[in-house]
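Lab channel / #folding
Pinned by the channel admin:
"Please post every new chain as: sequence first, then the structure tokens as a reply. Keep commentary short and put observations after the output so the thread stays searchable."

First post following the new format, from NK:
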Amino acid sequence: LQEREMKKVRMHELTKKQYYNMTVIIRQSLDYAVQKKMIVENLFSKVRVDSKLFKVKRKPDDETQVFLVDEQPQIEAEAYRDFQETGHNACLTVPFAFQTGLRLGEIVAIKESDIKDDYIHIQRMEIREVDQLPDGTWTTQKMKVVDYTKSEAGDRWVYLSSKARDIIKRVLENNRDRGFHDDGFLFLNKDGRIHAKGVDCRIRKYCRHIGIMEKGTHKIRKSYISTLIDSGMNINEIRKQAGHEDERTTYGNYCYNRLSNTQTESIL
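Reply from TO:
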């Protein structure tokens, strides 16, 4: 069994994370079978794959993962210009994301009642609802809001900067002036609550307008967290603001250099 697993790792050039994600269902199913006394022992638990066999995943280049310090103000300017021309609240989700670092699914699920003074309670998110067909395949039904977050750490209070509070004020005024309302949700258009896909398409359009690589809203989240790390804030507080369960996730997947080569060389 162990030889077979090592061969599998070599053949498919798996990283350690890919391999353990692939085998976790088998491992846990066998553990369950042992608990139910269906089998005597979980032999898979004895499998040890030499760590040298795993493919090392190189961390992606910084400029592909975050908005550089010179790019962020240009993107925000595009968003505000778009809002002035169209009056679409979706435009303001972009600078709001830069100020809060929220996941896109969390932003579009915010309700007015979540806002308390200088903080916002993140307690729900938008998910893609899927159904299984009789032939065993899966089909997407619709996007819906659920009353839970990605993890236990995701349910949190996030600080609202003065810019974030100003954006909320403008959104509320726009909702009132245009008669938008939908079950207390904050970011609305004439059809009701704004959906994540529309926001992500908008940020990519702004990237094209200013002539930079297309980056989605998750790269805004990485930019926000990287900015907090650069500020010297305690990593545990950053972890809590980001909604991560472990600071290793914060450092390992959200810590990138937002400076240009020239700016970095100046510091060096």
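NK: Strands lie at 115-116, 119-122, 125-132, 138-146, 156-159, 188-189, 192-193.
TO: also worth noting, The mean pLDDT is 94.
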